[in-house]
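hey so i finaly got around to running the thing on NBS-LRR resistance-like protein RGC110 from Helianthus argophyllus. pasting the sequence first so u can double check i didnt mess up the copy paste, my clipboard has been acting weird all day
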Amino acid sequence: GGVGKTTLAKTVYKDIKRKFEKSSLIENIKDISKQNDSTHLCELQQKLLDDILMEKNTRVQSVIDGQTLLGTKLRGFKVMIVLDDVNHVDQLTYLAGGLEWFGPGSRIIVTTTNRDLLNYYKMNEIYFCEEMKEDEALSLFCQSAFKQSSPTHGYERLSNDIVKLAGGLPLAL
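ok and heres what it spat out for the 3d tokens, dont ask me to read them lol
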């Protein structure tokens, strides 16, 4: 982690969600459903329904019930959904089901460190966030530390050492 997947997904979500009839962003799915039990998946399904339907009278009783509700209640809507930090196939299956759940033009963005998950689910498009190149990382660090694109005189070596330690991860800088 740390290359900016969540930040990128949130930015895209904020920029284009108004082009969709309904939208939802669910963050930290891996942390929320750590135990991988159905209770946590039900809570995530409930949040998705609450966000999309904007009503509180639909209650998820089980993950199967949640799948049925999502599949029927969202059918036909053009939705934008971000599922952040997914690490297990069940999370994707119970939250995004099949393409028939959503109307034409819908977009589901999934952030994950598990490449096998993306292959298993046969995603239409996959974008890989890469670590920053050393010169880009140095420039980012210097903008934050010195408010300029290069190190202040006398701090060149220390700046380069910090960038190497961060390993090209923007969040570490």
